[in-house]
């Protein structure tokens, strides 16, 4: 009974706070004039042309090819890659880099990183649309299992497709040097944290940027609440003697209160779907346009409303009639067509990740997933035995012991890149203490001048590119590689943790 009551109180609090933010955001965009600004005819035409440019399947976009993968259950995922056609006779001697985007983005958000000539030549680049985003099919529900299962199946399939091991012995030696890197931003980063903790064999390293590790954020919250409560109790016990404790309660609570304020949009996304839709798309996408405007940091000239919107909203009905240019002609999945017909539906599926428990719920792995992960782990091990088990492997094996202690700690090496001016995620709640969750050979890189959009903002995207190039060059990343990579692009970046 007590549980039910506290659940109801929690729900009511979230709803009221969501409502408050709903009106706050609408008020803000009305006040700024964004809400009532109608697109000109020229802007509308530009939008249609831009949509064709980014989502017409018969063309390349940013020199990348549109491709699809159909999963066992029929779900069709869209991705971009630099590999036009796989030549089965060519030796596969490339590292594989898989990019996972965030909210409200899609595969196109990596365009400033994938243009590196050395990455294009020497790696297989795969930028996927998460289910419900861009050109990928929607899911009926976006809980942890519903999201992690197709994502894992996709990554396993990409490994099989682009990272084939030859039977030829000398060829094997060559192809086993190839590494898999998973790069995630925002929701892609959060899902990356989960993969690194719960399916670490999928990649040799994770590069994760600007999203809280869910368990870490919770434990930071709990720590602050416990400390504040203690101080409050001390004060109440003897108010006159302990009067100095009273202001300290507020000091302690400040970072948490600030984070709750910034995460107000998450509460607004818990409202009924019609309201969420109105929030995102009312007033000619006023809310989204304001969000997109912040993407380039200080460089406001880089914001082009029709283009930004066309990228974010995914394919329209015209693009859903186009087909891919190679092999068997393919089209976007059926639910993508459904989203295109109701031009605001994409916002509902994009925000569903916040509603359906993708961050915190238990991921119930299917037997397929368990088997696939096991096979990869066995292959990795065999490969390492052949190569006289190098130091790095040993260290990640020893970190498996730690897994029994803390299920949400990472078991694969990770490089965390943190834009310290993040407009949504604050460092005291979302990053501090991350060292306890990292495996050996992990680092944290702080970028003092960058906000939330590390793959988009100029200085941070150049650094990210250099860091990926370093990974490709050396087959891994050490602290020195990071420092070398940011020396020219981001002189005041700091490696704050090196494990
Ligand atoms: C690709 O890798 C090879 C071998 O490491 C290197 O010589 C070449 O310069 C790289 N290509 C680019 C464009 O950097
Ligand atoms: C294995 O690969 C090497 C070099 O890549 C080649 O010379 C050799 O003929 C290959 N052997 C077989 C059995 O395919
Ligand atoms: C897509 O691109 C092709 C090739 O450039 C063009 O012929 C076609 O008209 C475009 N499709 C649509 C629906 O715009």
Automatic annotation (TrEMBL):
Keyword Nucleus part of the UniProt annotation: no
Transmembrane segments: 7-28
Superkingdom of origin: Eukaryota
InterPro entries reported for this sequence: AB_hydrolase_1 (IPR000073), AB_hydrolase_fold (IPR029058), AB_hydrolase_sf (IPR050266)
Any single Gene Ontology cellular-component annotation: membrane
Gene3D superfamilies the record matches: alpha/beta hydrolase (3.40.50.1820)
Keywords noted in UniProt: Membrane, Transmembrane, Transmembrane helix
All copies of domain AB hydrolase-1, residue ranges: 96-458
Biased composition (Basic and acidic residues): 322-331
Chain residue ranges for the region called Disordered: 304-333
Protein name (database record): AB hydrolase-1 domain-containing protein
Organism (species): Endocarpon pusillum (strain Z07020 / HMAS-L-300199) (Lichen-forming fungus)
């Amino acid at each position: 009974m007590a549980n039910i009551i506290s659940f109801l109180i929690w729900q009511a609090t979230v709803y009221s706070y969501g409502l408050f933010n709903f009106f706050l955001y609408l008020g803000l965009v009305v006040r700024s004039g964004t809400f009532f600004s109608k697109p000109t005819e020229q802007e509308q035409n530009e939008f249609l042309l831009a949509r064709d440019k980014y989502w017409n399947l018969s063309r390349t976009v940013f020199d990348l090819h549109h491709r699809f993968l159909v999963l066992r259950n029929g779900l069709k995922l869209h991705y971009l890659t630099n590999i036009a056609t796989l030549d089965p006779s060519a030796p596969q001697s490339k590292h594989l880099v898989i990019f996972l985007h965030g909210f409200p983005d899609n595969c196109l958000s990596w365009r400033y990183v994938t243009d590196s000539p050395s990455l294009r030549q020497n790696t297989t680049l795969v930028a996927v649309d998460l289910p419900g985003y861009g050109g990928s099919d929607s899911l009926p529900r976006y809980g942890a299992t519903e999201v992690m299962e197709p994502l894992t199946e996709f990554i396993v399939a990409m490994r099989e497709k682009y990272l084939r091991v030859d039977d030829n012995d000398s060829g094997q030696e060559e192809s086993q040097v190839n590494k898999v890197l998973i790069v995630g931003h925002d929701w892609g980063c959060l899902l990356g944290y989960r993969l690194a903790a719960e399916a670490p064999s999928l990649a040799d390293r994770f590069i994760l940027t600007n999203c809280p590790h869910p368990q870490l954020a919770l434990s930071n919250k709990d720590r602050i609440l416990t400390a504040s409560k203690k101080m409050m109790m001390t004060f109440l016990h003897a108010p006159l003697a302990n009067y100095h404790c009273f202001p300290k309660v507020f000091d302690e609570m400040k970072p948490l209160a600030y984070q709750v304020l910034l995460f107000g949009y998450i509460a607004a996304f818990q409202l009924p779907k019609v309201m969420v839709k109105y929030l995102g798309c009312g007033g000619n996408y006023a809310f989204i346009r304001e969000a997109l405007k912040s993407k380039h940091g200080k460089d406001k000239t880089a914001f082009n409303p029709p283009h930004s919107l066309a990228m974010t909203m995914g394919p329209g009905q015209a693009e859903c009639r186009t087909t891919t240019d190679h092999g068997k002609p393919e089209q976007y999945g059926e639910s993508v067509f459904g989203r295109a017909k109701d031009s605001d539906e994409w916002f509902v599926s994009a925000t569903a990740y916040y509603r359906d428990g993708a961050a915190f719920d238990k991921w119930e792995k299917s037997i397929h997933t368990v088997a696939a992960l096991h096979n990869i782990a066995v292959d990795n091990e065999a490969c390492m035995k052949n190569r006289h088990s190098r130091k790095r492997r040993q260290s990640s094996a020893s970190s498996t012991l730690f897994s029994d202690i803390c299920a949400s700690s990472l078991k694969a090496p990770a490089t965390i890149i943190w834009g310290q001016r993040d407009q949504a995620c604050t460092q005291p709640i979302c990053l501090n203490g991350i060292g306890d969750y990292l495996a050996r050979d992990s680092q944290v890189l702080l970028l003092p001048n960058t906000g939330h959009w590390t793959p988009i903002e100029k200085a941070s995207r150049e650094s990210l590119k250099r860091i990926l190039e370093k990974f490709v060059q050396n087959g891994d990343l050490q602290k020195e590689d990071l420092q070398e990579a940011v020396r020219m692009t981001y002189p005041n970046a700091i490696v704050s943790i090196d494990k």
